[in-house]
Design goal:
The chain has 140 residues and is mainly beta. The chain has two helices and eleven strands. Bound molecules: zinc ion.
Length: 140
């Protein structure tokens, strides 16, 4: 397992992705939803990895919801940087797609996907796609 670490601008929120997958084999996406476009978001996920978001102090992560309100967009309370999105799940710790621009090793993630536009995707297929493609959240 390799650990890829990243943090927000001020360092209050860190992210750790643990995976055996070569980062060059992980699809990198520029989601075209209005939130991701506003942030210039570049995200990636690995269904075979594990991810965790860590707050320096309780409450450093602000959770924002919009649209179908089926996932939380995690933003640093202090510096405003968008870190990734998480989805709750009844039988696991949830799933996440994360911002690779914050990783120290971001240059290793080179596999760009076509620009996906999920705006018109039905809710059920949207949730199933996330469970299939997003990174499982590690136990807290
Ligand atoms: Zn911050």
């Amino acid at each position: 397992m390799t650990l890829y670490k990243g943090s927000c601008h001020c360092g209050a929120v860190t992210v750790e992705l643990e995976t055996e997958t070569n980062p060059a084999d992980i699809y990198v996406r520029e989601c075209q939803c209005s939130f991701c476009r506003a942030h210039g978001a570049v995200s990636a996920s690995d269904p075979n990895g594990q991810i965790r978001y860590i707050e320096r102090s309780l409450g450093d992560i602000v959770r924002y919801r919009f649209g179908t309100k089926t996932c939380d967009f995690l933003i640093c309370r202090h510096c405003g940087v968008y870190m990734g999105a998480t989805m709750d799940d009844e039988t696991t710790h949830g799933y996440s797609t994360t911002q690779i621009k914050h990783f120290e090793d971001r240059a290793l993630f080179t596999k760009m996907a076509r620009h996906p536009d999920y705006d018109d995707e039905p809710l059920e297929s949207r949730l199933a796609r996330r469970r299939r493609n997003w990174t499982p959240i590690a136990e807290k």
